Amino acid sequence: MKLISALIIICLAQLPAAYSQQAQVADQIIGKVDNFIILESDLELAYKDYLSRGNNANESSVCTVLEGLIVNKLMLAKAEIDSVVVSDQQVDAQLENRMKMMVNQIGSEEKIEEYYGKTLEEFKVEIRDDIKEQLVMSEMQRTITQDIEVTPKEVQEFFRNIPKDSLPYYSTQVQVGQIVRNPVMSKEAKNSVKARLEGLRERILEGEDFEEVARLYSQEPGARKTGGNIGFFQRGELAPEYEATALRLKPGEISKPVETDFGFHLIQLIERRGNEFNTRHILIRPTFREADLQIARNFLDSLRTNILNDSIKFEKAAKEYSDDMNTSSSGGYFLDGQSGSTKISVEDLDPNVFFTIDTMKLGSITKPLTFTKQDGSQAVRILFYKDRLRPHQADIRLDYQRIQKAALNRKRSEILNKWFEESQSEVFVTIDEKYDSCNILKK
């Protein structure tokens, strides 16, 4: 059997592309695992995705993809048997994240609706079950492999066993860190936003519909479609200030303005079920003044001086002072998404970061730079260009974290292979006879 960890073919990121082609492929059942079926269309779409990743088109590739789909369905069937589940809240959160990513990629909700020929709500309904299945499979795979680790000796042995002519060739990698400072809102800016939200609250209390007001005034990206509804969440899943306020409300009650890292909110509690609560909100972000940004610049300029004078290490300063939670825990460094290494391919860097370091010397730190974050708000940062690796063939001294990740994936794959063989006897699996040459059930 091929390495199963590479066979979860249709990932969440590929769902939109798959659905855009769904009407063009034939539907015929070609496989069944207990109550889960695999259609010809599933194989066609997964195969197109497989080829789009640079793989070769041949009969063996078709078998590889079909094998991956069988494994996926086996995981779902076994998840039912073993009572492995994901909550509706997890599914809804992943669904909203997917919608936000699509909006960022395509440009707007209107363009998404035009592209797919259906409303955003209709599209959400169509892909919700697929997202739930993906989350269940991920949870099942995590359950099977969660305790797997590799020792340094195993990593070295794994590397030694790779033929020299098969060693991967890595493009230019860099080690870049950042320390981010969010501007502090002035009292005047905060009061202005609070007053605006208080006015909206009064309008709702006097009879206007909360959802309509949210559609008109909320700065949350999806509010125009959702009316500010965010669905059920459990304790610990939302901003602490938001959660604490929501849990103090009675159903239907509307809060006073509440400040979180995202801005200011009006919150209405819709329903509470134990530790789960359902809310809608209106979000407004204050506009930073130039003076607010300058305070952040001044702070980072002083911190930069201390780093250059060796009064504090960059990594320590990032952990203590950076407002970016994604990089502060790694000493400010951007991480490779697959290996977790602090050495990241230049192709994976944010373009703004890449073009900045392209003019820098190794070991240098920029002056404070104003930039726009993913949520659209402004912040200030300094960038540290620590190291650069030229394109090279894999070397365990230079690429240990990547090689360790590959060794871990192989070990997990071996565990999954064994699990697949043992689990086949617990479920009913059939595959259309035209794919007998793949010998999937005989491996």
TrEMBL record:
GO molecular function: isomerase activity
Domain PpiC, chain residue ranges per copy: 171-271, 274-369
UniProt keyword terms in alphabetical order: Isomerase, Rotamase, Signal
SUPFAM superfamilies per UniProt: FKBP-like, Triger factor/SurA peptide-binding domain-like
Top-level taxon: Bacteria
InterPro entries according to UniProt: OMP_Chaperone_SurA, PPIase_dom_sf, PPIase_PpiC, Trigger_fact/SurA_dom_sf
Pfam families: Rotamase
Protein name: Peptidylprolyl isomerase
